[in-house]
Amino acid sequence: MDEVRERNSHEPEFLQAVQEVAETVIPYIATQKIYDGKNILLRMVEPERAITFRVPWVDDQGEIRVNRGYRIQMNSAIGPYKGGLRFHPTVTMSVLKFLAFEQVFKNSLTTLPMGGGKGGADFDPKGKSDSEIMRFCHSFMAELFRYIGPNTDVPAGDIGVGSKEIGYLYGMYRKIRNEFTGVLTGKGLSWGGSLIRPEATGYGTVYFAENMLKTQKKSFENKIVSISGSGNVAQYAAEKAIQLGAKVVTLSDSSGYIYDEEGITEEKLAHVMQLKNVEKSRISAYIAKYSSAKFVAGKTPWKVACDIAMPCATQNELNGDDAKELIKNGCICVSEGANMPSTPEAILAFHKAKILFAPGKASNAGGVATSGLEMTQNSLRFNWPREEVNEKLKQIMSDIHSSCLAYGTEEDGYVNYVKGANIAGFVKVADAMLAQGVI
Ligand code: NDP
Ligand code: 2IT
Questions:
Q1: Ligand 1: which of 233, 310, 343 to mutate, judged by most atoms within 8 Å of the beta carbon?
Q2: Does the annotation mark 118 as catalytic?
Q3: Which of 43, 83, 158, 363 is the most exposed place for a label (fewest CB within 10 A)?
Q4: Structural domains for the chain
Q5: Residue (of 150, 213, 100, 126) closest to 379 by Cα position
Q6: What is the pLDDT of residue 415?
């Protein structure tokens, strides 16, 4: 870690992600002779390639604006680089390297042949017109296209990048390359997208939690569920939890959270989708229609009592004090929909209390797994029906859960899903790297 810290001293999020993996994987490596002297982890923390580029675009006032674009190609030992694009003002090299690093382990866990990558830009889509977003996406792809391809690197969405942005990005790639290929995932259904991809991350996070609960003969039925975020992942995590008989009581955005004591029903969730996806409004607008709810400005929802918590907004949104509060209020299960939403102090508290805790690289892997299924369908030039993709997603989440049990079960029977996910993800990539020599 000293060497990694020194080399990446200005990248706190990246170091946080590496530290968590190192703590669980190094003790395992020490027990396996095949890794002796191979410095596998030290090789894995250095991106195979990290690209930054200028993204110039013209706003609606005719002013020229410049953003910074990135693509981190972290590891391609088991397949083409794969991972989302994030458009958010907080995007930095550190944030994208942490996401790309986690993606390597996550993609390995999915059982599909995908390496890890991540990219994006410090562009803020909030308040931008549709044509500004289109011009930005076109300019971004006019440079990114050099580095990607269906067998090289396949980007997708993440924060601030949904099906609209994927459409603009895909259009420019197709024009420049004069090719119709599966170079991006999260595409629209009429041009190569997969059914269930929009729902997959949120649904998968719930399926993973279902698997965890099953080990204790419990289910979502009649449980109180608290969710943060109100974007793609949060919306579909809420939808599936409601379908399974739970009462979802919170959603949030960067302005604060809503608490609806009576529960967010399917009808209320449809209103949230209209507010967030169509009107581009804030979650606080929810209370104008539903008087049973209150809005708490500037706060995260973790003080609300719940049985199951699903952080689905962003990194480090749930700290040690939040974790203690959740535990005190009776929370039995935390399934991360976002990437690295819990701080190291929060994870420690969950482990100390021995509650069910799934790290995002296991529990939110359903999104990228379904992206993998989209790639397969594109290669086959065929589309699977909704139920078939959903069944495959469920099976993958159950297989990831089994891998976590295999590597994460401790002597007293408690399952450390962080350890399980990190080691299971590591083994597949490490073995491929060993087989391919020092590359
Ligand atoms: P969206 O852009 O659809 O939604 C993001 C949500 O998180 C919004 O409610 C947003 O609020 C909130 N949010 C974003 N940044 C912050 C912040 N700094 N503080 C507080 N709230 C914030 O993104 P997704 O739903 O796709 O992504 C959510 C999380 O899930 C991310 O961590 C992402 O990496 C992860 N993820 C996404 C996958 C996918 O397939 N989309 C797959 C696996 C993981 P606001 O509108 O106010 O910004
Ligand atoms: O963090 C993630 O796994 C994603 N944003 C989805 C990546 C993908 O390639 O579908």
A1: 233
A2: yes
A3: 43
A4: 47-189 (3.40.50.10860), 200-358 (3.40.50.720)
A5: 150
A6: 98
